[in-house]
UniProtKB/TrEMBL annotation:
GO molecular function, a single term: serine-type endopeptidase activity
InterPro entries: ClpP (IPR001907), ClpP/crotonase-like_dom_sf (IPR029045), ClpP/TepA (IPR023562), ClpP_Ser_AS (IPR018215)
Official protein name in the record: ATP-dependent Clp protease proteolytic subunit
Stored Pfam families: CLP_protease
Taxonomic lineage from the root: Bacteria, Pseudomonadati, Pseudomonadota, Gammaproteobacteria, Alteromonadales
Length: 284
C-alpha cells in the first residue's frame, strides 16, 4: 500500500495508541529462542527513539539469513507503531516460501497485529494471558481544514484495507471487524481462537521475562506517559534522546495535548517529576 500523498504533504505520522503503550510490558520474551529459525518482534514497529525498533530492513535481513525455503517462527511482543512499516513487514513475511508461524507472547497491538496475521492459518498462536489489539489507524497530523479532510479520507481507505486483511485472516464479517476496530478492541488469547485470529493458545512454558535493559524499560514508561498526555512521537523521541545525553533542550518546546481517545477533556499531567526520575535512572 503506497504512502498517501496527503500524509506526506501534511506532516502526518503514525503513532502508538496511548493505551497500548501503557499496557505493554517490554520485559516479556520467549522462554527459549532458536536463533537459527526465529525472528523477534520486540518493541516499536518502525524506528523508535533509540534509532532502533522493528523495521522492514531488519526483518528482511533476518529472513535472508535464515533462508527462503526454511520455516520461521516470529515471536511478538509489541505495542505497535508505524502501520506502513507493519504492512511492509507483513508482505515480506507472506512472500517467504517457508512456513511462517507467529506467536504473541505479551501484546501484538495495531501494526504488530498486522505482522502477526502474516502467519499461516494453522500457525498463529496467542498466549492465554496475551492480547491482540486492533483499531483504526492512529496518527498525529498538522494542516489546515482542507488538508485534514483529505487525511481523514485517506485514513478511511486505509482502515478499510485493514478490515480486509483481518477478515481474510480470521473469517469474521467486515461489519464485525470494523466495529472492533472502531472500539479499539483488545482480544485475549482464548477469544482470539474463538474469533479465528489464532489456531490455538500458547503454553505458558514458552513465555519468559527478562530483567535486562531496565533503563530502556524505564524510558519506555516515560514515553508511555508522554504519549497518553498527547505529546507527538517525534517530540517524545527528541526529549528522550536529550534525556539520554543530559541535554534537555527540547523540553521547553513540547506542547501537551490530552485530547486523546481514552482521556477526553483531561488535563495534561506535569511531566517534570517523571523527567527528573528518568534522568536519575540514566545517570546510574
Amino acid at each position: 500500500m503506497p504512502f498517501p500523498k496527503s500524509f506526506s504533504q501534511s506532516g502526518v505520522r503514525c503513532d502508538i495508541s496511548p493505551r497500548a503503550q501503557e499496557l505493554w510490558n517490554p520485559a516479556i520474551k520467549a522462554a527459549v529462542e532458536n536463533t537459527e529459525s526465529t525472528i523477534t518482534v520486540y518493541g516499536i514497529i518502525g524506528e523508535d527513539w533509540y534509532g532502533e525498533g522493528v523495521t522492514l530492513k531488519r526483518i528482511d535481513a533476518a529472513l535472508r539469513s535464515i533462508g527462503n525455503e526454511k520455516d520461521v517462527t516470529v515471536y511478538i511482543n509489541s505495542p505497535g507503531g508505524d502501520m506502513f512499516e507493519g504492512i511492509a513487514i507483513y508482505n515480506r513475511l507472506r512472500e517467504h516460501k517457508g512456513k511462517v508461524t507467529t506467536k504473541v507472547l505479551g501484546l501484538a497491538a495495531s501494526a504488530a497485529s498486522v505482522i502477526y496475521m502474516a502467519g499461516e492459518d494453522d500457525a498463529r498462536f496467542v498466549a492465554s494471558s496475551a492480547f491482540l489489539m486492533i483499531h483504526n489507524c492512529w496518527v498525529f497530523a498538522i494542516g489546515n481544514r482542507h488538508a485534514l479532510r483529505n487525511i481523514a479520507d485517506d485514513m478511511e481507505e486505509f482502515d478499510a484495507a485493514m478490515v480486509d486483511l483481518y477478515v481474510e485472516g480470521c473469517g469474521q464479517s467486515e461489519k464485525v471487524i470494523a466495529t472492533m476496530m472502531d472500539e479499539e478492541t483488545f482480544i485475549r488469547g482464548k477469544k482470539a481462537v474463538e474469533l479465528g485470529f489464532a489456531a490455538d493458545t500458547l503454553s505458558a512454558d514458552e513465555i519468559g521475562e527478562t530483567t535486562e535493559n531496565t533503563n530502556a524499560n524505564s524510558l519506555r514508561k516515560v514515553d508511555a506517559a508522554m504519549a497518553k498526555a498527547g505529546v507527538p512521537r517525534s517530540e517524545r523521541r527528541q526529549l528522550l534522546q536529550d534525556l539520554k545525553s543530559s541535554t534537555p533542550s527540547a523540553a521547553g518546546g513540547i506542547t501537551l495535548n490530552a485530547d486523546v481517545s481514552d482521556t477526553q477533556n483531561a488535563i495534561a499531567p506535569d511531566l517534570t517529576a517523571l523527567i527528573n526520575a528518568s534522568k536519575i535512572i540514566l545517570s546510574k
